[in-house]
Write a structure and sequence with these properties.
Blueprint lengths: L1 H27 L3 H5 L2 H7 L1 H19 L6 H24 L4 H21 L1 H28 L6 H39 L12 H14 L1
C-alpha cells in the first residue's frame, strides 16, 4: 500500500508537470512541440525528459520514505513544491526565466495551505508558519548577498525562488537544499570547464541544481 501510494503520487506529479509545460508552451516559448518530434529517445535525453524522470524518482522516494513523518499540510506542500520546481527547471533551462506569475501562484498556495493549517491546528500551524518564515528569510538573505556580491551574476529570479523555497522547506531544510544544490552546480561547472563546454563568463541555469538539492534535503534531513 505504501509503495502504491508513493508511485501514484509520483505519477500524478509527472502528469501535472507535463500538463503545465503544454499550457505554458506558447506563453514562454518552451518549444515542447519540437521536443515531442524527437521521439522517445530524444525526449529522454532532453531537459524535459530528464526532469520528468528526476521528478518521478524524487517524488516516489520521498513519498515512500518521508511523507509519513509530515503533517497533511506539509505533505501536500512538499509534493506541490516538487511539481513547481520541475516546471521551473524547464523554463530556466530553456529561456533563462523564472516567471513571476508562477512564483506568485506558488506563494499563494503556500499561504492558503498554511492559513488552513493554523485554523485547523493552531499550535502546530503557528509553529510551522514560524519555521517557514525563518526559512524564507534565511534563504532569501543568502541569495540576496550572492546577488549583490556576484555583480548580479545570480539572477533576481533566483533570489525570489530561494526565498520561496525557504517557506516550503522551512528553516530545517533550506540551508541543506542550498548547500547540496551549490555543490552539484560547482561540480557540473568544473566538469564542463574541463571539457571546454563552458567558459569562465558563461552562466548556467540554477533551478535544476536547486531542484536536486531540494530533493536530497527532503530525503536525508
Amino acid at each position: 500500500m505504501r509503495v502504491t501510494g508513493a508511485v501514484a503520487g509520483a505519477i500524478l506529479i509527472v502528469a501535472g508537470y507535463a500538463a503545465a509545460l503544454f499550457r505554458m508552451d506558447d506563453t514562454y516559448g518552451l518549444r515542447i512541440g519540437d521536443t515531442m518530434k524527437k521521439g522517445v529517445g530524444g525526449i529522454l535525453t532532453d531537459v524535459t525528459g530528464r526532469t520528468a524522470m528526476l521528478s518521478f524518482l524524487f517524488a516516489a522516494a520521498i513519498g515512500y520514505g518521508r511523507l509519513g513523518e509530515f503533517s497533511w499540510p506539509e505533505r501536500f506542500l512538499t509534493l506541490f513544491l516538487l511539481w513547481g520546481l520541475s516546471v521551473l527547471c524547464v523554463t530556466d533551462s530553456r529561456t533563462k526565466r523564472i516567471p513571476n506569475r508562477f512564483l506568485l501562484g506558488m506563494l499563494a498556495v503556500w499561504a492558503a495551505v498554511t492559513a488552513l493549517y493554523v485554523l485547523t491546528d493552531p499550535a502546530a500551524g503557528v509553529s510551522y508558519g514560524m519555521r517557514a518564515l525563518a526559512g524564507g528569510l534565511a534563504g532569501g538573505t543568502v541569495f540576496l548577498l550572492c546577488y549583490l556580491l556576484s555583480g548580479r551574476q545570480v539572477g533576481a529570479g533566483d533570489v525570489k525562488l530561494v526565498c520561496l523555497l525557504g517557506l516550503y522547506l522551512t528553516s530545517r531544510r533550506i540551508m541543506g537544499a542550498i548547500f547540496y544544490g551549490t555543490i552539484l552546480c560547482c561540480a557540473y561547472c568544473l566538469v564542463q570547464l574541463c571539457r571546454k563546454k563552458l567558459g569562465m563568463k558563461d552562466g548556467v541555469a540554477l533551478v535544476p541544481f536547486l531542484f536536486m538539492g531540494t530533493g536530497i534535503a527532503l530525503l536525508i534531513l
